[in-house]
Amino acid sequence: MLSLIADGLAHYVENHTSVAPPLLEELRETTYRELSSPQMQVGVVEGTFLKLLVSLSRAERALEVGTFSGYSTLCIAAGLPETGRVITCDKDPVATRVARRFFDQSPHGRKIDLRLGEAAGTLAELASQGASFDFVFLDADKENYVLYWDLVVPMVRPGGLIVADNTLWSGRVLAPKTASDLGVVAFNTRVHEDTRVEHVLLSVRDGIMLARKHSAE
Hints:
Layout: H1 7-15, H2 22-34, H3 44-56, E1 61-65, H4 71-79, E2 85-90, H5 93-105, E3 112-116, H6 119-128, E4 133-138, H7 145-152, E5 156-165, H8 179-193, E6 197-202, E7 208-213
Parallel strand pairs: 1-2, 1-4, 2-3, 4-5
Antiparallel strand pairs: 5-7, 6-7
Helix pairs in contact: 2-5, 3-4, 6-7
């Protein structure tokens, strides 16, 4: 996870954010030690932000697209009530093995339902089952962000929140070249033009799109 602000200011922000629990700090160290592309993991600032959003919205049913090593999943789960549940999906068996290890150690692990497989297939299956969610976090392959958006919005209850990560994409949204660059630009445009939601693009870390579904589609 990258930051678009200077290192010194980024450290200041992190140092003035609630301290992460020891288990999350251990997970961060394990991710950097055992996995490739550890920067994909959300940081303490974004993780705390996710937990607060879940808690403030009083969400009970959450969905995450892109588990990686489980840091964001645990933050979402921590914001849910004891009866809450988060379904998280990812196709990487290596990263999710790390995630499962830490889910098993967390008191919030019992709230987590990990689905291994292609996200689009998992989302389509959930939609066919009539699943409904109060909170959704998107943090997977950027080329398919628009697809994931179109699949999850109908499953979000009126007033529910959708949060998408990496929506400034290290500034490459201003001069997109690669498929991932173009995927993020297309996603931001899709959200901006979607009359089903109100939204704000935040310059937190690598960019966060925060959207709230209107009371009626």
